[in-house]
């Protein structure tokens, strides 16, 4: 989640050190925890905004607000501080008068906030996340993959296996590693694991660099890539056409020449039988 990581850096630069004056959920479901009372953070300066997996961590030690943006969520400076902001879920107001607002586009209301006291690693919702993908070397990645016999594309997105990779990065990582997205993760050879580990770092670094040049979090359409959502376009590596296998909630994009020895896995019309 390079867009989350870069956004955390921006928020730390802008709001780090600001003392919390109040935290208010704006809907009944925005705050996912009953205890501790978020008011325990009032009067504490924001140490930093961190990231773990897909979560933003607003750290007011010893209390941390863990924020999940989901697809349509945004955490942004809130100069207006209107009483009923559109899509508003929660607001942090600082002693200097500034504020941060959590919003979510659409009607799903899946974004949310957890107030966590102490070590976030041992408590919901961070508990159970795999190691952050960018921290893995090939040996550690191999150990993780050996325990997951699913398709590589799915295991990469499994946050309990390794954290921080979404649908776009999974497509780009498999392409850069020259691996079939449908290869069995547990049966990859040492060379393939090496390539996958290198591709994870290459793709995360490239995305992080692009995100850091922005003033705000990108939309998925702005994010760079060779194959993701580029069905029918030309593979920049080999010139073959980029192909797609569609699922209900995501699309696997790949290049047959680069990744599957020329084998076409399935097209849009037949892929529903692959579920
Ligand atoms: Zn190619």
Which helices and strands appear, and what pairs or packs with what?
Elements: H1 2-15, E1 20-25, E2 48-52, E3 55-60, E4 63-68, E5 73-77, E6 88-94, E7 99-104, E8 112-117, H2 138-146, H3 152-157, H4 167-176, H5 190-212, E9 242-246, E10 251-255, H6 256-259
Helix pairs in contact: 1-5, 2-5, 4-5
The chain binds zinc ion.
Residues 235, 237-238, 240, 255, 257-258 line the site of zinc ion (ZN).
Task: Report Rg.
Answer: 20 Å
Poorly predicted ranges (pLDDT <50, ≥5 residues)? 271-275
Spatial order of strands in the largest sheet: 1-6-7-5
Strand content: 15-25%
- Please bin the fraction of helical residues: 10-25%
Mean pLDDT: 93
Order of helices and strands: HEEEEEEEEHHHHEEH
Q: Label the structural class.
A: alpha+beta
Straight-line distance between termini: 26 Å
The major pleated sheet works out as: 4 strands, antiparallel
- Give the names of the bound compounds: zinc ion
Shape: elongated
The count of helical stretches stands at 6
List how many beta strands DSSP finds.
Answer: 10
Overview of this protein structure:
By secondary structure, the protein is α+β, with helices and mostly antiparallel strands. Helix content is 24%, strand content 21%. The chain has helices at residues 2-15, 138-146, 152-157, 167-176, 190-212, 256-259, and strands at residues 20-25, 48-52, 55-60, 63-68, 73-77, 88-94, 99-104, 112-117, 242-246, 251-255. A four-stranded antiparallel sheet has the order 1-6-7-5, with no helix packed on it. β9 and β10 (251-255) form a beta hairpin. The longest helix is centred in the last third of the chain and has 23 residues, at 190-212. The radius of gyration is 20 Å and the shape is elongated. Residues 271-275 have low confidence and may be disordered. The structure holds zinc ion. Residues 235, 237-238, 240, 255, 257-258 line the site of zinc ion.
């Amino acid at each position: 989640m390079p867009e989350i990581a870069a956004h955390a850096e921006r928020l730390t630069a802008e709001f780090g050190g600001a003392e919390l004056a109040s935290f208010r959920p704006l809907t009944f479901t925005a705050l996912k925890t009953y205890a501790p009372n978020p008011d325990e953070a009032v009067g504490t300066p924001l140490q930093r905004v961190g990231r773990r997996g897909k979560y933003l961590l607003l750290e007011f030690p010893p209390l941390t607000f863990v924020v999940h943006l989901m697809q349509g969520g945004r955490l942004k400076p809130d100069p207006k501080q209107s009483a009923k902001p559109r899509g508003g879920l929660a607001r942090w107001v600082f002693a200097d008068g500034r504020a941060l607002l959590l919003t979510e586009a659409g009607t799903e209301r899946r974004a949310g906030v957890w107030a966590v006291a102490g070590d976030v690693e041992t408590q919901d919702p961070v508990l159970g996340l795999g190691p952050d993908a960018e921290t893995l070397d090939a040996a550690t990645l191999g150990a993780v993959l050996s325990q997951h016999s699913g398709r590589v594309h799915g295991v990469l997105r499994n946050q309990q296996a390794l954290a921080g990779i979404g649908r776009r990065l999974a497509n780009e990582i498999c392409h850069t590693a020259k691996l079939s997205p449908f290869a069995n993760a547990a049966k990859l050879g040492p060379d393939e694991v090496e390539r996958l580990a290198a591709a994870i770092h290459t793709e995360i670094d490239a995305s992080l660099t692009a995100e850091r040049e922005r003033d705000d979090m990108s939309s998925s359409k702005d994010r760079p890539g060779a194959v993701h959502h580029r069905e029918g376009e030309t593979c920049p590596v080999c010139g073959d056409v980029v192909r797609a296998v569609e699922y209900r909630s995501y699309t696997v994009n790949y290049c047959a020449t680069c990744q599957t020895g020329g084998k076409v896995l399935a097209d849009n019309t037949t892929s529903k039988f692959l579920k």
